[in-house]
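Our preliminary data section would be incomplete without showing what the modeling component actually yields. Below, a chain of 90 amino acids is followed by its predicted structure, encoded as tokens that our downstream tools consume directly.
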Amino acid sequence: MLELSKEMKFTLTELLKECISEAHSGRTGGTDPNKYPSQILCLAELVQFTARCEEAIRMHNLQVADISLRVERGVGYPSIGGCQSNQSNK
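Predicted structure:
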């Protein structure tokens, strides 16, 4: 059982790295939602959101980051509980 747990953690870690890397590549159309489990997609989105916020704080540019995120997300931010679908904003 311990070996299975280790393999699952390794696999999820690799999927997360791949998903974030794919998102950073700037590929048209974004990340394919059928390629990754939903928990990986949500976690990758939150990691990217956090990275953009941290960068804005470092650059003392929160207002520009806020406007950019609102435009990108249709005014909504990720919910406290995790991933939020853009469909709910329409």
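The helical segments are 2-24, 38-58, 62-73. Confidence is low (pLDDT under 50) at residues 85-90. Preliminary results of this kind motivate Aim 1 of the renewal.
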